[in-house]
Amino acid sequence: MDKVITCLWFDGHVEEALELYTSLLPDAHVLEIARYASDAQGMAGQVLSGRFRLAGQDFLLINGGPAFPQSEAVSLQILCDTQEEIDRLWATLLEGGKASQCGWLKDRFGVSWQITPRALGPMLADADPERARRVTEAMLGMVKLDIAALERAYG
């Protein structure tokens, strides 16, 4: 079991989120689901929390109510090796959600995601400031990131 687990606060829909998030990558799966007891504030049988593993990392989703909505202050980033992976994850997470820019989107539950090419970090950190600038400018003009366009800007 991990020592540090990311916990996300939800206002319902934990089971739906678990289903979506465990569909993203081949090794993802639900670890446990806890339900409210019969005497818990009228929420008997509803999901209290769900823990799942995604890419070897554990996450906890808590059905805590409307007090703390999701925000872009916390996002989950998936590093992708191919454009096909970016396209698939983008389409899956964007269904019912909202696109932003630079590879960011909010899924239908309000959780922010960054669907990012693995090669982007090294490009942005290149020792040649002109190359890094070109990649940055290309990225800033994109909604969903395009690996080929970033590579052209880098080259």
Key structural traits:
155 residues; alpha/beta; Signal recognition particle alu RNA binding heterodimer, srp9/1; 2,3-Dihydroxybiphenyl 1,2-Dioxygenase, domain 1; 2 domains; 4-stranded mixed beta sheet; 8 strands; 29% helix; 28% strand; elongated
CATH class of the largest domain: Alpha Beta
Ends distance? 43 Å
Q: What is the alpha-carbon Rg in Å?
A: 18 Å
**Total helical elements:** 5
Mean pLDDT: 94
Share of residues in strands: 25-35%
Task: Please count the beta strands (DSSP E, at least 2 residues each).
Answer: 8
- Taken in chain order, the helices and strands follow as EHEEEEHEEEHHH
Low-confidence stretches: none
What is the CATH homology-level superfamily of the largest domain?
Answer: 2,3-Dihydroxybiphenyl 1,2-Dioxygenase, domain 1
Query: What is the CATH-assigned architecture of the largest domain?
Result: Roll
What is the quaternary state of this protein? Answer: single chain
**Spatial strand arrangement across the major sheet:** 1-4-3-2
Largest sheet: 4 strands, mixed
Helicity range of the residues? 25-40%
Quote the CATH topology of the largest domain.
2,3-Dihydroxybiphenyl 1,2-Dioxygenase, domain 1
Shape: elongated
Please, how many domains? 2
Structural class: alpha/beta
